[in-house]
Amino acid sequence: MIRINCPYCGEREHSEFTYGEDATRTTPDNDAPMEEWNKFVYERDNPAGEHIEYWHHAFGCRAWLKVQRNTITHDISWVGLPHENPEAAS
Amino acid sequence: MGQYNALNIAWNALRGHKNWQRAWRDPEPKSNYDVIIIGGGGHGLATAYYLAKNHGITNVAVLEKGWIGGGNVGRNTTIVRSNYLLDGNAPFYEHGMNLWRDMAQDLNYNVMFSPRGVMNIAHTKSQYDVFARRANTMRLNGIQAELLSRDEVLEREPIIDGSADTRFPVWGGILQPDAGNARHDAVAWGYARAADQLGVDIIQNCEVIDFIKQGERIIGVKTNRGDIHAEKVGMAVAGSSSRLAEKLDLRLPIESHVLQAFVTEPYKPLINGVVTFGAGHFYVSQSDKGGVVFGGDIDGYNTYAQRGNLPVFEDVIAGGLTMMPCLSRLKLLRNWGGVMDMSMDGSPIIDVGPIDGLYLNTGWCYGGFKATPASGYCFAHTIANDEAHELNKAYTLDRFAKGYTIDEKGMGPYPKAH
Q1: How many Å lie between the alpha carbon of A8 and the closest alpha carbon of chain B?
Q2: B115-152 pLDDT, tens digit each
Q3: Residues B264 and B332 sit within 8 Å (Cβ to Cβ)
Q4: Which of residues 293-312 of B touch A (CB under 8 A)?
Q5: CB contact under 8 A, A18 and B300
Q6: pTM here?
Q7: What domains are there in chain A, each with its CATH number?
Q8: Whether complex ipTM tops 0.90
């Protein structure tokens, strides 16, 4: 079981959360070329290691959280709110 | 090494089974090949076999970082079917069914293909209507399909809870009668042995660390057992596709997710075919040894760990017990996980490029096992001819940019949902 330390609720099991997606992608401008939109919609870094991602505390406070998690060990090294960033990544 | 046959078995039995040869050689990698296939899983081995058999290209190396049969080809629930809806998929998988039927004879290896039928259960009238559409589409594509009434479903699998007060009563079902199971390890070993006999080098414990490029062209790979050069390099590495592509600064439309599978202790015959629950995600069959083999959803978050988590475990088993309450008495023997390369539309990629000298085989989501022969057949064609076979021409990498996605479930670019 992965445990996520929600800034509002404290440490909870991940079955209270739903997984969002890669949180490092940024939406291109409306008039950006299709190539950029294709990269945004379809391509992923999909790293083996540290991954910054969104989780939704769906069965808790219902806040969206940003989480840094290792995709090999499942260890979580940082949890914040969506507008924040872990120091190493920012 | 010779052929396996009954006479051979009797002869060796009389000599105490002391004279069997190893099924494939253990060669040192050469410095140069015509084709390198990265990944000694089912798809990689099948590709090497069909390169040698259908295209006469025998100077081929299959590089496997672990051992043959240790990855997803040995981790799946062994289901073989072709009950697909969309034009890009249906003929491809049905060609695979034809290869499955003859595989044991073709490879001279008993892959225990058992067409015992794959039955999906409907629990509502509307779900049954969707199945009717699927069955009609399958028949138009030349794939066998039958709609089953509630009584026919319960007759085929008597242990399904048919009582009126069950949470999701059975309404009916859809059956692909010629689909079924195969012994997954035997498929890997059979392709390995047959490819080896045609001259393919199967090199285990050989991990690709990087690619060797000359200008913009890939001319080989760096491995932990030295540099190996080749005219063409094919990649069939399932869950590790993005990790290898990263070395080429290539981003793929892939996320890696873990899928769990489960097996019980062997029991007497209990389940006749492959059955899927329609009100949740649960699929089950019984192995020839008697173990009840089942699985369900992927865990739902990006991961490269070959192990899953308990909430999905509970969800899968809850679905199973709703459909077949007697499963609660069985003892679970093992559970395990495999890393899936989940693509953005739930369909695979078999394509040339996008870099010269590179060929891609990826994005099988959690349906790769059934595709093993068709994937190898088409990937070999694609590598040999530098263009797709008729059957895999829809599985291009640029279909996402062009808007020709093949999305069986209509889920959109959310790999966790496929």
Answers
A1: 22
A2: 999 999 999 999 999 999 999 999 999 999 999 999 99
A3: yes
A4: 300-305, 309-311
A5: yes
A6: 0.95
A7: 3-89 (3.30.2270.10)
A8: yes
